[in-house]
Amino acid sequence: MKIKYKIALYYTVSATLMLMIFAVLVYYFSSKSRKAEYLERLEYRARSIANVIIEDGHVKVDLLRKLDRTTFQDLYKESILVYNTNYDLLYSNLKDTTIRTHRSLLDYIKLNKTFSYEKGSGEEVGIYYTEENVSVIVIVSSFDKYGFQNLQNLSRILLLELATAVLVLVGAGYFFARKMVEPIDKLVKEVDSINANNLQDREVAVQGRDEIAKLAVNFNTMLQRLSDSFDLQKSFVSNASHELRTPLASIISQLQVTLSKERSAEEYQSVLTSVLEDAESLTDLTNGLLQLAQSEMKEQEFVFGDVRIDELLMDMANLIRLKQRESKIDIQFNKFPDNDLLVTCFGNESLLKVLFINLVDNACKFSKDNTAHVFIDFYTQYIMVQVKDNGIGIQPEEINKIFEPFYRGLNAQKVRGHGLGLSICKKIVQIHNGHITVTSTPEEGTTFTVILPHL
């Protein structure tokens, strides 16, 4: 079922139920009011009769009979019974009818002074009236013909109004539901026309400030993120293809030239050395792509544990020295920790090794003396690691671009690399809820600062 039909249905059903409850309450209180009013009228009738028949300390029933024959009787199917204190029937307006009044009822009226009762044929009221030391029991019963007719008319009116209201509610509910859902229908049509080929500069129209407008704003934000992701993916594929093609083309061309004729042993060795360098470059690029893909994984997909940053940096320095014998790595504490927890973070050890290997390896490559200076510091809630070099530095206009995949500064083109390391570093830091920043002065050096929360 469509949402607009659901809205119309829920609106109609809920409004109908409320109207039904209102109609039932109106009928109920009208019925209660009729009953109370008619019983009060019967009681007044009984007291008037008792007041009329008692005169000068005697019960004058003849006066009541005379009045009964003229104008006294004005209630529909009225029954009047008058008893003395000995329960003798003094007067009755019922002719040719056997009269039976339970003694217990008369006892009750005499004891409680009043009595009222609702029976199928109407209402009945009894009173115990005393005047000038003379007491009588008067019982009056009647059927509220006009009251019940009014109730029947009221019930017909309420049912008719309820049926009319339901029809109006159905139409109004559908109209308002369609108006409410109309922006959603427009949003659906616009979204249905969007695909991967026309994401650029596509936006859903936003009107108003309601929840649907917020949905449209969020959808536009999502479209922008998708567009950026697709652009990044296209750029990544293009750059990766280019970077992979370059060493492969170099290897193939060198081998083709070498195989075109016989070469000396020295020439073969020179070619193999060059091919080995290209193969190593290809291996570095492949490893970088794998690390970049791994860094794109969600935090939940990694195994996290307690990692001592100082020990990890020591192990990492040994690995880099084995890889590049001419590299020098100087690791220092700005202040020594009193507690191991101050230099321990909750993270993935393999990813953190990749992070600091990339930073330190870059520092060694770009330093004039192949030296990387690493400083470890800690504060109340986080660990700070700074990696410094004294190399060529980064131009100010390139600072904001160096963390993009495959981006390399103009002054770094001569240094071996593929521009993947820093983008991998940034993603690893983000996975660990940290921050990475860079400051650089051209021809003086660059400092990368990594901040990670400690235990």
Structural features, described:
- The protein is of the alpha+beta class and 455 residues long.
- It has 3 domains: 3-149, Beta-Lactamase (2-Layer Sandwich), CATH 3.30.450; 195-296, Helix Hairpins (Orthogonal Bundle); 298-453, Heat Shock Protein 90 (2-Layer Sandwich).
- 53% of the residues lie in helices and 18% in strands.
- It is built from 9 helices and 14 strands.
- The protein has helices spanning 3-53, 61-69, 103-112, 145-192, 211-259, 265-295, 309-323, 349-366, 421-431; strands at 54-55, 58-59, 79-83, 89-92, 114-119, 122-131, 134-142, 305-308, 328-333, 344-347, 371-378, 382-388, 435-441, 445-453.
- Strands 4-3-7-6-5 form a 5-stranded antiparallel beta sheet, with helices on both faces. Strands 9-11-12-14-13 form a 5-stranded mixed beta sheet.
- A hairpin with a 2-residue loop joins strand 5 and strand 6 (122-131).
- Helix 7 packs across helix 8 (349-366).
- The longest helix has 51 residues, at 3-53.
Q: Quickly count the helices.
A: 9
Q: Count the domains.
A: 3
What CATH architecture of the largest domain do you see? 2-Layer Sandwich
- Determine the CATH topology of the largest domain: Heat Shock Protein 90
CATH class of the largest domain: Alpha Beta
User: How helix-rich are the residues, as a percent range?
Assistant: 40-55%
The class by helix and strand makeup works out as alpha+beta
Order of helices and strands: HEEHEEHEEEHHHEHEEHEEHEE
